[in-house]
Amino acid sequence: MKLPSLRANERRLFVIVAVILGVWALLSWGIQPLWNRVADLRLEAESKTERLAALTRLMQEAPAVDQEFQAVASYLSQEDGKQAHQAFLTELETLSRDSGLQLSLKPKAAAKSETNQSKFEVELEVQGSQAQLLQFLDALLALPRLIAIDRMRIASMPSGQQAVRASLVIQGIIPSKVPQ
Amino acid sequence: MKGRLVIEWTRATLRMALAELGRKPKLKLFRTVPLGSQDLTAEALAQLYRALGVSVKTAVLVIPREQVITRGVRFPATQTSELAQMVELYARAQLPYAREQMILDFAVLEQKAGFSNVVIVACQRDVIDKPLALLKQIGLEVQCVTVTSWGVAEWFRHLPKQSELPEPTLIVHLDDARTDLVLVADKRLLSSRSIGQGTLDWADLDQVVELLAIEVDRSRASLRKELPDLDVQSVVLTGFGALNEWALPLNRRLGLPVQVVPSDLPFAPWKSAPDTGVSPVVAAAVAVGDLNRLLHLTPPELKGQVKSRHQLNELVLIGALTVTVISMAVGLIGMEVYRHQRVVNQLEQALSGLSPQAKSVQEKRRASSLVNGVISQRRHLAQTLSGIFQNLPEAMSLEALNYERSRQEWSLRGSAASTQTVLNYIAQLEQLPQVRAVRLKYSRQRQTLSGERIDFEVLVTAASEA
Questions:
Q1: Which fold has domain B3-298?
Q2: Distance from CA of A37 to the nearest CA of B (A)
């Protein structure tokens, strides 16, 4: 290494400064970013490994899940929200007719879409005897359709001893399509 | 190639020897140039140096023994630092040169009972400054200045079978225009002399042996003064001349074993050219020898420069090593990055292969869960409703039944024949597995046409669905 026109002390200083700068540059632009990158990649690998393990576990459970799915497949209608709504109203009319109840339906908002499902609401009022009402409720709860009763009010009517009036708010649930 | 260039500057010739340094240094070349009567110029020296065809930038300078003076002194100390101070004081008081005009060094010959026998070697600064200036002009930096006698002693150290001779041994080194007489024992130089005549000066002389014998006797006499306990036990003849012819007569004359050793013997397989007319002993021995064993008549400022250069070289080496280590660390971490990146890519690939199927399974599970949840809720509702009606006593009538899914609460309002009937009904409801708690909100007595009735309202909190 030729360092012309420099005194011995200056040369030493020059070399020390050059070495320090070189080391600093290597540490700052070499080791530090690479080290950070290694740490990031390690974290990424860990999270991906965990995710892969979870997916592998899930895949191991796939036959059981499939079996369970097949068991409830009849509840998963292929209709869209509007069709399901219409069909349900028709079914309600049929049920009330079969039970001998007077049915009055109150219009509600159209089906609302959520992340994995869409929902619609039906509000209805039926009048008849207690036995007819119980028959109606029995048939309603046995429908192969995803419905949940949100509110139910049954009150005896002052006109007749056995006459009752029931008003129900029913929620129909339509899950989003599941790939077969 | 890492080499060492030695320049031996005598009265009649300039010799250059180059050795390849390594675990065992090897002599690569030896050149000699007659100086003639005129002083050597820098241009001529540069030409000679270029003719060597070497790229060495530092050199060792050897000056003739006759250009230095020596003194054998006994000092009451054995520590090198103390001896150096004593030598300094001695030199200022006893040597014939002014201190600032003198360069000196010393070598310890013997240490015994707290005393040291020391040989002090000194020369005038001018003797060294002139060749140093010339060498500097041609770009050669001198790392060490030494004396021919130490070169001869170094040559002797490199002899393969030196132990066969009884010691102390006087080495008579015959050169073209000068002769060194160096006494060595136990691989150390004890005493040295030189005469300004050599083989070429004695070419026409018949009594060379007698001349050599006289010089040997002078050396022995000088040795007796400096080290009275020692005497020469053998003589080695080397250098340039008819050594084999002189050996036997010299042996008879001195009564000592005399052995002729070819000057190039320690440098095998290198052979000196027979027609060089000079001895390669000194320059070649210094080239392959250990500089730490030599006497150093290096000017202090040059020593400082050499030390500074060494420090600088060490600093550069340390810096280079540090940078290399860090660079290797960068490389290793880079490999680690590559390895991790590969693992991440493989995981990514595996995930992308599994994801569609896993998503389908997840959706099926979610749909099943949703359906099961709704069915379970419906079953729960039906069972609760059935429980409410089945447990209803005959003496009780329900007027209103309200259900709120969000609160999981049933409100039953009706009338009963007695409070006890109501309480019994509550107890019945509490037995239902779908019921978590039953609370009587109110009960009120009322008179009717058919008699007394109890109006009540009961709040039933449903248990969470299984």
A1: Nucleotidyltransferase; domain 5 (3.30.420)
A2: 7
